[in-house]
Amino acid sequence: MNEEDRTSAIGLARFAREYYDAAIAADDVIGNRKGYEIVAPAPVMFLIAHATELALKAYLRWKGVDLEGLKKVGHNLEACWATACKHGVTEHVSLSDEELGILRLISDLHSSTELRYIQTGYKQFPVFGPLQEMSAKVLNTVCPLVGFK
Length: 149
What we know:
mainly alpha
């Protein structure tokens, strides 16, 4: 079995759901600590961002995009969303202007690795509640669509 065959839409959707569930579990522990009332801890935001990325890539695999196509969008969530839109994702799920703004914020942090490696300086973080809701909206549509319940 080659690498193309081993990277399936269902497998990516399963990983997306697992990363999302891990984010919620981590937020239930770390996010309840003082200081995290609005902005979630970096590991939680990383897990949510990665879950969203994997769900969008699951959709793209389901639509026939090859691994090279997935690598081209990289970890840039805006590019993942734009590519998914070109492949008709908005027939199944749409994001409001507010949700697109949240996607833009988390995309910058996710693709720059600032959620994994500390970089001092000014950053803008999304509020976790709306970020979680946007991610859940994508996952709850894409995962069943590609065959992962």
